Amino acid sequence: MIVISDTSPINYLVLIEQADVLHLLYGRIIIPQAVFDELQRERTPAAIKDWLAYPPAWLEVRQASVPFAAALEKLGDGEREAILLAEEMQADAIIMDERDGVREALQRNLRVIGTLGVLDEAAARGLLELPEVLARLQQTSFRINAELIDSLLEQDAERKSRQRFDNALKKVPDVEPEDRDRLE
């Protein structure tokens, strides 16, 4: 699977100590050189700079060989290069949060996953506890509206409830698989 990431998802996942879910979900993550550079700016938190000083083996930095596209000039360097690299490599997905970048990626028929989508997928696979992680994310400068948080937490609770129910049914030997739907 080829997955390209923009700056903010890496930034926030490192800050909340969940960057490894990228590897667990997608294997290798590729970032363009511009994203690597943005993650090392002067105002970047020390935790991110420390993480990048010894990057994990699953993180790869690549330069897009596609020339600058005028249609992308309104985007930041990281978003622009991430989209160009995703197109060039025919990526399976691009991880991006910035609204204009997401809009442009979608117009180019790229599959876009946001930071919240990564966390939700990781929670669905049992890799993290979503309420705890979202609480940590809210302590950063990540902008998110309360309704979206509530919706994600509600979906997570429903998912966990279904999993508990399914696990309980597995322990009851006399319930046939076709009868399980009627019990729900």
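Above is the first protein from milestone M3; the second protein from the same milestone is given next.
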Amino acid sequence: MKALATRLMTAAGINPGSRSERAIYGTAWTFGGYAGGLVIRLAGTVILTRILAPEDFGLLNLAMALLAGVSLLSDVGIQTSIVRTSRADDPAFMHTAWTIQVIRGFAVAVLVVILAKPMADLYGEALLWPLLSAIALIPLVQGFQSVGLSLAQREVRLRPLTLFSMTGFALTQTITIIIVWQLVSVWGLVIGGILGAVLQVTLSHLWLPYRRPVWQLERPAVREIMVFGGWVLLASGFQFLGGDGRKAVLGFMLPLEILGIFGIAEMLSRAPSDFCGAVGRRVLFPSISELMRERPQAVRAALFRAQVVIIGAFLPGFLLLALIAQDLVDLVYDDRYAEAGAFLTFLALYSGFLVLEMPYAEAILSKTKGASYALLIGVTASCRIAALVIGFQLGGVYGAIHGIGAAAAISHLVSLALAYRGGFANPWLDLLGVTLIGGGLAVALSAT
């Protein structure tokens, strides 16, 4: 297979061992890993929804959203720093990155435990207190993960990275299903998540090790990580508000049952965009970062090729998902989750804007010290929260979903403006993508 691919790329003018070849192989492995992960996730949720009620998923979604908030609000971009730095071959830098990662994991765990009781009182859900306190073990364990994972991403060595992710995810899902089957309780999801984190951290040191972990805080390395990490921290805070923060806001407005159904629809709607995001993080960002260091004048052409692939390969996936949404939900879930089909139709279409934005976001993160990226995420988050609340007030849960779509469109316009300022915008391709999304939306609205 690899020999055939190499011959085809040589015939196409792509040198074996080049950045283009690594990107092609990386994308292929990312697709394989994502497809496998999607099958595992879908199979897992189908089984779990037969055992647990929508309210259980709503409660877990709320707890995980709050955990994600604390985690993102303490994110200093360690993995991103390793991908961008020129010191990745320096053990002092890598050991410092691992030490900061461990300290951050401990800090997140302590903060989640402190906030567990106030959050439970705020939402009026007494079970949130013990759930959050237990879930706090997950970031504590994950802090000990091998930095070899970040090195593999930097070097676009996605075969071992993909196999690691798929194996860890499959084992975690299996453990969770077994425990849920025995307990028939939301606690099964929590215990499965904790055991899965222990398993994946252990596998990371066996699968992609980086020497023997050493506690070290070298001042230049700390300074480099934290200076860049300051902007990443700000961007991550905004990212929480626009991402998992939506679930925290929806937790005030929706019953747990509807929140759980919304969570199922959102999980399915992210299928194409999650894959596209994985390609962005694992292939496009390292490749663009390398181009920025070596040949910055080639960035616009590289982004153009990426956008052509996205519009040609990914957007039809969103349109197809929106078209079959109700049939898909009716096929794999029971009647309690039927309304997820209507939610999925619109969420899938609006996710298309996030895919159009992805190449620009990765280029902005690669080119700048983080200020422009933080601006992009900040505008996105502010629009999402404002549009979510306004939409809900005007039209209930469907108004909130359309608000999410309006915010995604505005965020895409901001990314286009920043890309134009940076000299790597391709507006005609964006117009084509927006036209396809608009056409799909018109069909969906006419059918309701």
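Note on the second protein: Residues 1-16 have pLDDT under 50 and may be disordered.
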